[in-house]
Amino acid sequence: MLTGTLRRRHAVAGLALILLTAASTACGQAQPPLPLTTVADAPLAGRATRWDYASLDPTRHRLFLAHLGDSVVTVFDTHRQRVVADIPGISSVHGVLAIPDLDRVFASATGRDEVVAIDARSLKVLARMPTGDYPDGMAYAPEAHKLYVSNEHGGSDTVIDVRNNRRVGTIALGGEVGNTQYDPVSGHVFANVQTRAELAEIDPATDQVVARIRLAGARGNHGLYIDAPARLAFIACEDNATLLVLDLRSRRVVGSFETGDGPDVLAFDPGPGWLYVASESGEVALFEVKGRRVRALGRGTLGPNAHVVAVDPATHRAYFPLKDWNGKPVLRITAPTVPK
After folding, report:
1. What are the tens digits of pLDDT across the range 33-83?
2. Which of 49, 98, 207, 317 sits CB 3.0–4.6 Å from 55 for a disulfide?
């Protein structure tokens, strides 16, 4: 058994692995180019207006895209590389989350402060459920059969029972709420409280906040991805263009990296261990995560307003909806660059 002093020394040594790796890229050093190749610019339907979140259903090879400016959920076939449907009437759609186990897709509609349930087979709207003010990101806790919806301006998470498509609760979080994510190891839900530089931890068994984690160095912590096996959380801070690395064991920020301006959506490809951070500026920052080691791979402009990304772990292709490419929206599809 380790003594208390030895345990502390081991913990500090483990944190240093991440700190040393992060420090090499957090001081304004030049970044290598993105190791990505554009394989296609697939045309998207609708007008050259803003896109928001994207979510992949790998069982059907369908990518669901929130076309916010057109109030439409666009369905893209990743095998045939073309749009197969547009689902209208999702007012100012922000978030979209495909849950293959339920054969459903959920979309947050900020124009009407509601969440819309969509049948993944027929692509028909099944139900509409009220939320708080400005619903945005969503997370699904499968054991509890609950969907958690970030109400950015409402300062809360709405809780939806997916078994009957019914709102069952509201959790006050005390500030503007960024993205919400589920952690399968703890079984808890984590939500960015971006005006308090906090990560709130919610227990789905009680729908109570059980902890608040201070995020040192955070300004506008909005984007969130949880690497459950490594016990790390990655937090994109839109107001200071920073990616924070949070150790979920110690509840401490253990690393910090520069990103493009206005980092927003994060996506992870578990095969190579690549973490994508897409920014409002159109810059994408790419990181390699190996266990608990994190290092920057490259950063560069992917396209105008390329702030949304989704990754297919089977093909390692990444998808970036661009609202205006030569006057029309396109889906930029990239693949890892093959070394020559």
Report:
1. 999 999 999 999 999 999 999 999 999 999 999 999 999 999 999 999 999
2. 98
Cα 297–chain centre separation? 19
The C-alpha atoms of residue 299 and residue 278 are separated, in whole angstroms, by: 10
- Token output for 31: 């970044």
Contacts of residues 102-107 at CB distance under 8 Å and 24 or more positions apart, as own/partner, are 102/162, 104/162, 105/55, 105/57, 105/64, 105/73, 106/138, 106/147, 106/160, 107/64, 107/66, 107/73
Identify the H or E element spanning 248: none
Q: In whole angstroms, what is the distance from residue 16 CA to residue 154 CA?
A: 38
* Structure tokens, 137: 């990101």
Q: Cα 189 to the chain's mean position, in Å?
A: 14
DSSP, res 340: -
Which two structure tokens, joined as six digits, stand for 248?
A: 């979920």
Q: What pLDDT, on the 0 to 100 scale, is given for residue 339?
A: 65
pTM of the model: 0.91
CATH number, domain 17-25+32-336: 2.130.10.10
Could you state, in order of their start, the residue ranges of all structural domains in the chain? Answer: 17-25+32-336
8 Å CB contact between 108 and 93: yes
CB 50, CB 321: distance < 8 Å: no
Contact criterion met (CB below 8 Å) for 106 and 116? yes
Q: What is the 3-state secondary structure (H, E, C) of 97-149?
A: EEEHHHCEEEEEECCCCEEEEEECCCCCEEEEEECCCCEEEEEEECCCCEEEE
